[in-house]
Amino acid sequence: MRVLVVEDEPILADAVAEWLRREAFAVDVAYDGGAALERLGVNEYAVVVLDRDLPVVHGDDVCRAIVAAGGESRVLMLTAAAAVRERVAGLALGADDYLPKPFALVELSARVHALTRRARPAAPPTLSRAGVVVDPARREAYRDGRYVPLSRKEFAVLVELLRAEGAVVSAEELLERAWDEHIDPFTNVVRVTMVKLRRKLGDPPVIETVPGAGYRIR
């Protein structure tokens, strides 16, 4: 799933982004509120990790814009102010969760996982279909009870296929959800990842190619 990290301290922003990538999220980064609004205008994000004190456009205004857009993005607001009134004010703007600085990266990623489960429609803690079981929070995958070691992108693609509940997912949709904004839209990375994923999941094959449409798990 795709996450936008909005933080004006580059070292912190990059650290958060790298940590979430290790959790198999596709992550874009914006260092000010204006850049965040630009990315929100062209990309869909499951979760926006949003610092409240931002230059160019304040984090409060970014949060208001997300809520006004009426999409499915969940907002995890960050701030150095730990007072209760500050947390209440952030939640009143429409943020879904609130995390004061300094914070532990493991807690942040746990909160991001929790917010993805609250997306519409609600996602269950584990995903399963055709003998394949995935736990997104623990980043574990199993085929008929056998643990399957997957790379970050293989895991992210498998999660998206399972979330589709048997519906076809196009290569374009997989690029949008499992890779960040720097990926070449004409790359064959989806096909290559699918070949590796099928090999690791083993026989009988569970991922079906639908010619001209995409992929699905029946």
From TrEMBL:
<keyword id="KW-0597">Phosphoprotein</keyword>
<dbReference type="InterPro" id="IPR039420">
    <property type="entry name" value="WalR-like"/>
</dbReference>
<feature type="domain" description="OmpR/PhoB-type">
    <location>
        <begin position="124"/>
        <end position="218"/>
    </location>
</feature>
<feature type="DNA-binding region" description="OmpR/PhoB-type">
    <location>
        <begin position="124"/>
        <end position="218"/>
    </location>
</feature>
<dbReference type="InterPro" id="IPR036388">
    <property type="entry name" value="WH-like_DNA-bd_sf"/>
</dbReference>
<dbReference type="InterPro" id="IPR011006">
    <property type="entry name" value="CheY-like_superfamily"/>
</dbReference>
<protein>
    <submittedName>
        <fullName>Response regulator transcription factor</fullName>
    </submittedName>
</protein>
<dbReference type="InterPro" id="IPR001789">
    <property type="entry name" value="Sig_transdc_resp-reg_receiver"/>
</dbReference>
<dbReference type="InterPro" id="IPR001867">
    <property type="entry name" value="OmpR/PhoB-type_DNA-bd"/>
</dbReference>
<feature type="domain" description="Response regulatory">
    <location>
        <begin position="2"/>
        <end position="116"/>
    </location>
</feature>
<keyword id="KW-0238">DNA-binding</keyword>
<dbReference type="Pfam" id="PF00072">
    <property type="entry name" value="Response_reg"/>
</dbReference>
<dbReference type="Pfam" id="PF00486">
    <property type="entry name" value="Trans_reg_C"/>
</dbReference>
<feature type="modified residue" description="4-aspartylphosphate">
    <location>
        <position position="51"/>
    </location>
</feature>
